[in-house]
Amino acid sequence: MRHGKKFNHLGRTASHRKAMLSNMATSLILHKRISTTLAKAKELRKYVEPLITRAKEDTTHNRRIAFSYLQSKEGIKELFGEVVVKVGERTGGYTRIIKTGFRLGDNAEMCIIELVDFNELMLKEAKPAKKTTRRSRRSPGKTESAVAESTPVAKAKEVADEPQADENNEEEKSAE
């Protein structure tokens, strides 16, 4: 019985599923993008993303754990080298699944799963995103100068400036 077992078994035994996910993860890390069915891609995402998170900290322990999942020296070198350099600042969401339609033979839903930071086309589109704006607590009608004029210090300066302006006007009138 499958009580409480929520992951997709993909119609395989545990050892076959583990070997398949290991091979797919290695291929994804080496090639940065693979085409597969949607069900396999969703399971692969759950398999690969914790490995990438673990690879951010390059220790012997983390390398051994990653090797136990991937069983590939080339995959480990690529994961702890080039992949981690690109995704170092990212906190998660290292993969992207793009649906591509249905397979001709059995009508299975196909997709492309790729590492997010390695798709140059998507990165170019993402750069000219909208600028972030800061929200202030000021009322929308007031500008900075209006706010500055309403402060007591600004009002005191205005009062101090007014008599000087009157004296200048009196001097100009007497000169005429």
Automatic annotation (TrEMBL):
Domain of life, per lineage: Bacteria
GO BP annotation list: translation
Region (Disordered): 128-176
Biased composition (Acidic residues): 161-170
Compositionally biased intervals (Basic residues): 129-140
Molecular-function annotations in GO: structural constituent of ribosome
GO CC annotation: cytosolic large ribosomal subunit
Family annotation (PANTHER family): LARGE RIBOSOMAL SUBUNIT PROTEIN BL17M, RIBOSOMAL PROTEIN L17
Assembly behavior: Part of the 50S ribosomal subunit. Contacts protein L32.
Name the record gives this protein: Large ribosomal subunit protein bL17
